[in-house]
Amino acid sequence: MKPLILGLGRAGCRIASMFFAKGNFTGVLLDTDRSELHHHRHKYLLLLGEALLDGNGLGKNLGLGREVIEGETHRIVERLDSIGKGVDCYLVISGLGGGTGGAAGVLLKELKRSYTEPVYYAGVLPSREDHPAAMSNFGESFKEAWMNCDALFPIDNDSLKGKQRLRGAYAGINERIYECFSTLFEIGEYGYRRGNDGSVLSTRDVINTLSGLSALGLAASDPRTLTMIESGETGIDKPEVVVSLTKKAVDSLLLSGGIEGSQKALVVVVGPKKYLDFLGSIPARLWVEKNISGIEVRGGDLLLHRRPSLEVMVLVSEMKKSMRIQQLYQIGKTQLDKDAFAGRLASTFERLDSLKKKVREVEEEFRDFYDALKGLKEK
């Protein structure tokens, strides 16, 4: 499957640049911050809003972000047309709390208008460690992105970072995002062109599965299990190994919350030929069928000789809105209420200052008037 990848804003560019550095992917990095953009060694860079911002970024100003991207859509589409030949889909990656990345909905809307291929969006959810403005931006950003893409992948940094501080966990999180999506994009004709033996799954299987709220998970077998499989030990149960990896993949979804509310799924068993047989994917698919709400589950094997281990990738789609997203909506609403209250308070103080100034002016005017009257009386 051949995607064209667009990294938007700081978070989006950092994640997308990993695809360009580590895999055979094409795309564009877009940002309003010149210094951040030129940090990346990629030939397709596009600085947005230079005339308005002079390359200084947006500072989480979501309204201005929308204005900038709306004014740049023609340049963006021109650049995509020059490099996006024969792509199967578009994937936009950004943070959902920033001024540039948070305005991804405007870009997604333009892609849907300009192209017939599916448009997918991977949006990094704001963290508890982020600036309060990120929480304020989230609700509006998420809603606009949701309305303008074929499938939305929320990425929950707070879940993925574990016990680490977020700043120290970025590299590991971005690596995990790359591994999940790069495995997904191995499916279909794109994989054949890269010299792999093939797959029983096609690009159409991915497109038919993907819609609405979606999540990806990936799990790899440990070296001891692989040694047992290679040695042909009679105690090893291959179907059980695959089911165990499927459960681990579900537990490691990029959006926490399980798969119970999902309507559709795709399960892929990945690895070199020595670890695979067709039976491998069937138990995984049956387990997923029992654990989602819907009945539409696709599955198959993906032979990748360069992968050193046996892996299982799980894609779930048409999920119910997760508790995590509902929680962020509530936090964002509370933050907006706080911002609104702070704004009203500031406005009240400004009015008080203005009234005080007017009172002083009236007092001075009255004093002048009194002095004039006093002068008349003395005469």
Can you give keywords for this protein?
elongated; Rossmann fold; single chain; 5-stranded mixed beta sheet; 60s Ribosomal Protein L30, Chain: A
Secondary structure blueprint with pairings:
Elements: E1 3-8, H1 9-22, E2 26-31, H2 34-37, E3 45-47, H3 50-53, H4 62-83, E4 89-95, H5 104-114, E5 119-124, H6 132-147, E6 151-155, H7 157-160, H8 166-184, H9 189-193, E7 198-199, H10 203-209, E8 212-213, E9 215-220, H11 223-231, H12 238-251, E10 264-271, H13 281-291, E11 296-303, E12 311-317, H14 323-378
Parallel strand pairs: 1-2, 1-4, 2-3, 4-5, 5-6, 6-8, 10-11
Antiparallel strand pairs: 7-11, 9-12, 10-12
Compose a concise summary of this entry:
This protein is an alpha/beta fold. It has two domains: 3-185, Rossmann fold (3-Layer(aba) Sandwich), CATH 3.40.50.1440; 212-317, 60s Ribosomal Protein L30, Chain: A (2-Layer Sandwich).
Structure description:
The protein is α/β, with parallel strands linked by helices. The chain has 2 domains: 183 residues, Tubulin/FtsZ, GTPase domain (Rossmann fold, 3-Layer(aba) Sandwich); 106 residues, Tubulin/FtsZ, C-terminal domain (60s Ribosomal Protein L30, Chain: A, 2-Layer Sandwich). Helices cover 52% and strands 17% of the residues. It has 14 helices and 12 strands. It has a 7-stranded parallel sheet with strand order 3-2-1-4-5-6-8. Helix 1 crosses helix 8 and helix 5 packs parallel to helix 6. The chain is elongated. The N and C termini lie far apart (100 Å). About 3% of the residues have low confidence.
